[in-house]
Amino acid sequence: MIASIFWALVGLGAGVLIASQLNFWQANFNMEWLTFGRLRPLHTNAAIFAFVGNMMFAGVYYSSQRLLRVRMASDLLSKINFWGWQFIIVCAAITLPLGYSRGKEYAELIWPINILVAVIWLVFAANFFWTLAKRNEKSIYVGIWFYIATIVTITMLYVVNHLSIPTSFTHSYPIFGGVQDALVQWWYGHNAVAFFLTTPMLGIMYYFVPKAANRPVYSYRLSIIHFWSLVFIYIWAGPHHLLNTSLPEWLQTLGMLFSLMLWAPSWAGMLNGLLTLRGAWDKLLTDPVIKFFAAAVTFYGMATFEGPLLSIKSVNALSHYTDWTVGHVHSGTLGWNGFLAAGMFYWLAPRLWKTKLHSVAMANAHFWLGMVGILLYVASMWVSGITQGLMLNATTEGGTVLQYPNFLDTLQAIRPVMLFRAIGGGLYLAGYFMLAYNIWKTARSGTPVNGTVEITVEEENASEKRFSTFLNAPVIYSALIVFALCLTIFSNGALFIFGMFLTITFIIVAIAHFEFCKASWNDWYEKLLKHGFGFSVLTIIAAAIGGAVQIIPTVTMQRADNIEGRIQVPYTPLELAGRDIYVSEGCYNCHSQMIRTLVPEVMRYGDYSHLGEYVYDFPYQWGSKRTGPDLAREGGLRSDDWHYFHMLDPRSVSPGSNMPNYPWLFKKPIKVKQLPNKIHAMRMLGVPYPIDLSEEDIQAQIDEQAAGIVARLAEKGAFTDPDKEIVALIAYLQKLGTYELTSEKDEVATK
Q1: Which of 55, 34, 30 is CA-nearest to residue 43?
Q2: Residue 625 in 3-state DSSP?
Q3: Integer Cα distance of 239 and 189 in angstroms
Q4: What would you report as the CA-atom Rg of the chain, rounded to the nearest whole angstrom?
Q5: Under a CB-based contact definition with an 8 Å cutoff, are residues 391 and 409 in contact?
Q6: Average pLDDT in the 723-731 region?
Q7: Among 69, 197, 449, 666, which is least packed, fewest CB within 10 Å?
Q8: Would you call the peptide bond into 619 cis, given omega within 30 degrees of 0 as the criterion?
Q9: Cα atoms in the Cβ-side hemisphere of radius 13 Å centred on 31
C-alpha cells in the first residue's frame, strides 16, 4: 500500500508534467530524457503497473487471506513479489526516459525487464494458487473469481504480445509485424485495461464495498452473470481500437459488436456495487470511504458506457486520434481505479496500524478536490477531442475542399481547454498528496497489526472430489453456442444461415433447460466453486476463445506472400536505423502512420493506407493519438532541409507547433554496429534482406545514402556530419509511403 501511494505521486506527477508540455513546449526543457515522447510511456507505465499494480497486490493479499481463511502460502514468495515488482518499476523509470523502448503502447519495456515481469508475475501466481489449494473455505467467493481471471489472462496476454527477437541487451523486434502486430497489440492493450485495471478492481470491489457498507453483495446471481459474460466478451473487443483502418473488415465488425455487448455485463457489475451500498447512503455525507467507493463504481459505469459508444464506427470516425479517447481512458483510471484505491487505503490504514484515521475532514477534502480535478480533466478532453475531430473532418464546397487544411489550426483552437486539462490533473495530484500525508500521520499514531485468527476447518465430503467439472450442462451448452457463433462468423450463404439457426436453437434449449432444472444448475455451480482447478481451466478457456478466433487466422493469412496489391519496400540499413530512432524518441505518441478510409483523411493526407504497406514494420506504428499530423505518406512531401530545421527548431518551419526541439540528434552518432544484428533479426522475421549482406556492404550502403542527404542539406545551408542520427531519421521519414505493386492490374487500379 505504501509503495502504491508513492508511485501514485510519481505517475500522477509525470502526467501533470506531460499535460503541461502539450500546451507549453518549453516544459520539455530541451533535455533528451524529459521530452513528451519519452515521458508519456513513463507516465502510463507508472500509473498502470506501479500505482494500480501495487494497489492490486495490496487488495489481493489482504482480501484473499480472509476470503480463503488461510495465511498466504509463502511469506518468501510474498516478499519476492513485492521487492521484485519495485525493482521492475525502478528499471522502467530509468530505461524509458533514456529512450529504451519497444515502441508499443503499454508494452514499451525492453525484453530483459519483460522477462523479469513474467518471473515475478509467476511468483505471485504460484503464491496465490498455492494459497487457493490450502484454503479452509470450501466455496470460492466472487472476489476470488476475478483474481483467478486476472492472473491467468494477464499471463496469456503479456507473453504473446511480448514475444520478441533480441538484437542487443536493450533492443528487440516483436515477432509480429504490420496488421498482425496491430491486432495482437490491441488484443493485449485493450485487455490489459480489462484484466489489469478492471477485473482485479472488481474483485476488490466485491470484497471492500460490502465491508465498508457492512452489507452483503446485493445479488449473487448478478455477480455470476457479471463475471462469466465479462471474461468471455471482453477479450473480443480489441479491434475497436483499429476501426476504419486497413484491418480486415470482419475483425473490425467483431470488435464493434462485442464492444457493444460489453454494456450488459459492465453495468451488471456497476449496479451490483451501487445497490450493495444502498444501505449505507446515510453515511455518504460523513464517511469518505463510502464517498470514494460510490464515486468509483459510478465512474466504472460511466467509462463502460462511453467505451462501447466510442466503438461504434461512425462515432469512432470522429473520436479516434483525438483527445476524446484520452478523456475516456482517464475517467476510468482516475475515477474508477484512483478513487477505488483511495477508498481502499482510507479503509485499510486504520486497520493495518490499529488506530483511527488521522483526519476524516482531510479525506473528505481529498474527495472533493479529486472530483473537481477529474471533472475538469474529462470535460476539457471532451471539448478538445470533439473540437479537433470536427475541425479535421470539416469540408466546404460540397465536401470537396477541407475547411481547415492546416493541422496546426486545430492545435491552436484547443489550447485553452488543454490548459484546463493540466489544471484538473494538478488538482487530482494535490488530492493524492493529501492522502499520502493523511496515511503517514495515521501510521505514525498507531502500531502495525500482527495478529492471528483461529480457523475451524470443516471436513470435506469425499464424494464431491469425484465430481466431474467439465461434463455438465452449462459447459456443454456454452461450447455448442460458441461453436455455432464461430460457424456463423466465418461462413457465408447457407452455412451462415445454418450457423444462425444453430445459435438460436442452442440458446433456446439452454434457457428452457435452465428454467426447468434450476436446482441442478445451482448445485452444479456450487460444486464448481469448490474445485479451484476446474474453475481456473474454464476461465482460461472462456478468455482464450476470442483471442484465438481473431489472431490465428490473421497471423496465418496476412503475410507478405499472401497479400496482393501494394507491398512495402524494405528499409535500407540507414532507414532502419532512423526508424529505431523514431521509435526510441516516442514519436508514435503524437504521430500516426495510418490514413483511415474516410474522405477528409484522404483529402488531407493522400490515398488511404493499404494492408501490405506495413508488412515489414516491426513494430507497427499506426499510433492512437494525433497531436501532430499523420506521417503515412510523408516521404517526398517535404525537402530534407525542412525536416532538418523541423527537428532543430519546429517553430522555425511550423509556427505555433508544440513539438519539442531535438538538438541531440545533431550530436549523437548512428549506432551502426548494431545494424548487422538488427538486419539478421529482420531476415528471421521474413523481411527479404540479402543473405550475403556483410558488415562492409551495410556500411557502404549507409555511406552512400547518407552522403546524398548531407549534400542536399548543404545546398540549403543546413550542415551536419553523415554519421549523425538526424541523417538516419531524415532517411526514414523520406521513405514513408513508398511501396511496390504486385501486378499491372494493381498499378492501373492505383492510378
Answers
A1: 34
A2: strand
A3: 10
A4: 27
A5: yes
A6: 97
A7: 449
A8: yes
A9: 9
Instruction: Give the pLDDT confidence of 132-184 residue by residue, as tens digits.
Output: 999 999 889 999 999 999 999 999 999 999 999 999 999 999 999 999 999 99
Q: Which three cell numbers stand for residue 687?
A: 523481411
Assign 558 a pLDDT band (cuts: 50, 70, 90).
low
Q: What is the bridge-based pairing of β-strands 395-396 and 171-174?
A: unpaired
Q: Which residue has 505504501 as its cell numbers? A: 2
Rounded to two decimals, the pTM is 0.93
Q: 305 near 261, Cβ under 8 Å?
A: no
What ranges in 685-724 are assigned the alpha helix state H? 695-715
Cα 614 from Cα 174, distance rounded (Å): 14
DSSP state of 664: G
CB 414 within 8 A of CB 390: no
The band of 469, judged by pLDDT with boundaries at 50, 70 and 90, is: low
What is the C-alpha to C-alpha distance for residues 482 and 486, in angstroms, rounded to an integer? 6
CA gap 160, 154 in Å, rounded: 10
Instruction: Please check whether residue 311 is in contact with residue 240, taking contact to mean a CB–CB distance below 8 angstroms.
Output: yes
Quick count: other Cβ atoms within 10 Å of Cβ 242? 24
**What is the pLDDT, as a whole number, of residue 751?**
45
Whether the CB-CB separation of 592 and 632 falls below 8 Å is answered with: yes
- Cα separation, 719 vs 644, whole angstroms: 9
